[in-house]
């Protein structure tokens, strides 16, 4: 049996079976997508970080979203670009585990951050007079620390359970490394891993969905009771944008989880949906939260105007 587990530390990649003429367009598309994600998220981070007027609870929590998006998209695109550029068909097992860890950090982090944002909006709209008392900087710091530490703790146990298993396969077909694709390489009983993985996903999803649905339901009730049209429209807009992002992530994530257990799904469609989870939310989040948030949009417009006039005066 020892010989069965004596496998190479290098994995064979069978995930992008592209004809030679499609490699360059695929590389250009991936590079452009990554550049857009980098630019949009770094702009959002810079605008919030450099403007003291935006150092408020809402924006401090929001700041975690583009940081988290950069973690997930970088974990995906850096490996994809390397694979397409070098035409490599191999990957070190340690690199695969690292990629999987950061992709799961992104997936769990997004759920926790969106839940924290929903809680913040609930306090702001349903308890506006107590908002400054409740959402102090110390409380916001505790929320941010708690969501990252909880995410790290859950994933540390997940990957501890994974790395204890012996591996006897070396072929990867999924477009990126994650816990299910790594478990497929193992040749031991993975029942404990599946139970823990499904249990943590179920618990986090139930808690997140209950909190988000409850807070937005309360926000909607408060909106319809409000006699101020501006407050009502602003709150409804906040609800709509948050729910769009959350539902998009939930649908893509749920399909990715189900696709591992359905054998009749087209492998190409499954790969596309799996990668969509790491492409569309990181691209849309800074646009939705940046352009749809009046304060951030105004700061960005002011920054661009100042740079434009400085460049004209320099000429």
UniProtKB/TrEMBL annotation:
The chain crosses the membrane at residues 22-47, 59-81, 101-119, 140-163, 195-217, 238-260, 272-291. It is found in: Cell membrane. The keyword Lipid biosynthesis does not apply. It comes from the Eukaryota. Coiled coil: none annotated. Its main location: membrane. GO terms for cellular component: plasma membrane. Keywords: Cell membrane, Disulfide bond, G-protein coupled receptor, Glycoprotein, Membrane, Olfaction, Receptor, Sensory transduction, Transducer, Transmembrane, Transmembrane helix. Residues 40-289 form the G-protein coupled receptors family 1 profile domain. The keyword Disulfide bond applies. Belongs to the G-protein coupled receptor 1 family. This is Olfactory receptor. The lineage of its organism: Eukaryota, Metazoa, Chordata, Craniata, Vertebrata.
């Amino acid at each position: 049996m020892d010989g069965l587990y004596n496998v190479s530390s290098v994995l064979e990649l069978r995930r992008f079976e592209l004809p030679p003429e499609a490699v360059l367009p695929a590389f250009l598309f991936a590079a452009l997508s990554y550049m857009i994600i980098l630019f949009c998220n770094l702009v959002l981070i810079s605008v919030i970080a450099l403007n003291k007027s935006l150092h408020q609870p809402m924006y401090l929590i929001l700041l975690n979203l583009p940081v988290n998006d950069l973690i997930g998209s970088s974990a995906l695109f850096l490996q994809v670009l390397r694979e397409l550029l070098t035409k490599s068909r191999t990957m070190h097992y340690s690199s695969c585990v690292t990629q999987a860890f950061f992709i799961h950090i992104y997936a769990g982090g997004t759920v926790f951050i969106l839940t924290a944002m929903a809680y913040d909006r609930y306090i702001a709209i349903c308890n506006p007079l107590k908002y400054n008392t409740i959402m102090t900087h110390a409380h916001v710091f505790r929320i941010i620390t708690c969501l990252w530490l909880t995410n790290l703790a859950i994933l540390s146990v997940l990957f501890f359970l994974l790395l204890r298993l012996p591996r006897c396969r070396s072929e990867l077909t999924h477009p990126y490394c994650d816990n299910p694709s790594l478990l497929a390489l193992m040749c031991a009983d993975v029942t404990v891993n599946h139970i823990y993985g499904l249990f943590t996903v179920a618990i986090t999803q139930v808690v997140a969905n209950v909190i988000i649905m409850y807070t937005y339901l309360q926000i909607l009730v408060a909106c319809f009771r409000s006699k101020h049209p501006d407050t009502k429209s602003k709150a409804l807009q906040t609800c709509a944008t948050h729910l769009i992002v959350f539902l998009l992530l939930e649908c893509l994530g749920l399909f990715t989880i189900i696709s591992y257990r359905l054998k009749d799904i087209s492998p190409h469609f499954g790969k596309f949906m799996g990668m969509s989870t790491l492409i569309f939310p990181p691209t849309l989040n800074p646009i939705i939260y940046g352009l749809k948030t009046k304060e951030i949009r105004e700061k960005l417009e002011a920054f661009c105007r100042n740079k434009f006039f400085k460049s004209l005066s320099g000429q």
